Amino acid sequence: MNYDHTIAEDGVGRRDRPTEFPAARFKHIDTWVFDLDNTLYPADCDLWPKIDQRITLFLVNLFGLDGISARALQKYYYRRYGATLRGLMEDHAIGAAEFLAFVHDIDRSSLNPNLSLAAAITALPGRKLILTNGSRDHALRTAEALGLAAMFDDIFDIVASDLLPKPAPLAYERFFRKHAIDPGKAAMFEDLDRNLVVPHEQGMTTVLIVPKPGQADHREPFEIPGGAALPHVDFATYDLEGFLADIAAARTSGRNAAGGRSRI
Ligand SMILES: [Mg+2]
Q1: 70: domain range?
Q2: Which CATH number characterizes residue 201's domain?
Q3: Are the C-beta atoms of residues 194 and 230 closer than 8 Å to each other?
Q4: Using CA atoms, how far apart are residues 257 and 251, in angstroms rounded to an integer?
């Protein structure tokens, strides 16, 4: 493979430099899978912090905790179970519907329609699906605010996954089964590299979405790759629409569209 996916040592582990854009890796792809939060919208549009704060508030209300204790519990659950909801269900039998409605009840007015991303997704041949640890309603409303809802064939949310979040292998298994996905013919775009481990193992082509230099980074410290190469990440980019446009252009022209243009 003639590209370099070594994460550069810039202290935050968010660089990746494909030296060549290998369109061949996407030639056979017929299913395009996208994470939602911090993937289909940029990390600096402040949507994720709003959800994060609503989760803290849910725990404050539920347990009568102060904000700092609630926050600590939230982060413990997130790290241990992959999603706070899962921790609440395991430990306290909390109903999912109430939690999901509460934490996604946020102002989305900071989102603007992303016409270039809409065009890039439209240009991809095949199915387009959203795979999110959030709720379907949140994904739909967010995709609508971004002007992307019409581009997607379906949304596989945490409820469809029987409340089992990524990166649990069974969550992907359920997703593949429900949508009859051949992972060998599917690509996945996601901002958390640990959510790409199983997809890569299963044969998906994986693309990590990283923050632009200087852009807000909402990943937890443990989620930021620290200088090590990530063998489960085939590509990384902070320019999702440009990356997709290159894929579509290469497939249309039938040749490598890189032209030396690097996405990073
Ligand atoms: Mg995400």
Answers
A1: 47-103
A2: 3.40.50.1000
A3: no
A4: 8
Element (H, E) at 169: helix 169-178
Are residue 37 and residue 87 in the same domain, yes or no?
no
Number of structural domains the chain divides into: 2
Q: What residue ranges in the chain does DSSP mark as E strands? A: 31-34, 127-131, 154-156, 186-190, 205-209, 235-237
Name residue, tokens 């241990």: 80
Q: Ligand 1 centre from 48 Cα, in Å?
A: 9
Does this model's pTM top 0.90? My answer is no
* pLDDT tens column, 32-80: 999 999 999 988 888 989 999 999 999 999 999 999 999 999 999 988 8
Residue position matching structure tokens 């579509």: 248
pLDDT at res. 20: 54
- The rounded Å distance from CA 218 to ligand 1 centre is 10
pLDDT in tens, 171-201: 999 999 999 999 999 999 999 999 999 999 9
- CA of 123 relative to ligand 1 center, distance in Å: 23
Distance from C-alpha of 228 to C-alpha of 148, rounded to nearest angstrom:
34
- The Å distance, Cα 254 to ligand 1 centre, comes to 31
Output the CA 39–ligand 1 centroid distance in Å: 6
